[in-house]
Write a sequence for this structure.
């Protein structure tokens, strides 16, 4: 006999808090930074092995320079947010010494 009721009403009952939002974005920024690093590692190795690295990618940089600059800036923004939020978590975890 199956009862038709929601399994977990937490999304419909509770309103989002600032700390839970920070925690969710901390996880998202960490996952994006990890994905970017894992995606970038093969390209770093190819660049080290290639004798014509500068000449082969100079056209790519010339055409997509705005995208590369945007990607670097967004990565830096995600890194700053992730590090500052991590420091905040460490500060909270240290407790309240009295």
């Amino acid at each position: 006999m199956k009862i038709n009721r929601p399994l977990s009403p937490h999304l419909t009952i509770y309103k989002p808090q600032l700390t839970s939002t920070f925690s969710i974005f901390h996880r998202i920024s960490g996952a994006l930074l990890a994905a970017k690093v894992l995606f970038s590692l093969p390209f770093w190795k190819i660049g080290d092995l290639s004798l014509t690295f500068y000449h082969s990618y100079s056209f790519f940089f010339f055409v997509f320079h705005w995208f590369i600059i945007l990607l670097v800036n967004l990565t830096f923004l995600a890194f700053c947010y992730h590090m500052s939020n991590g420091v905040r978590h460490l500060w909270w975890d240290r407790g309240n010494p009295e």
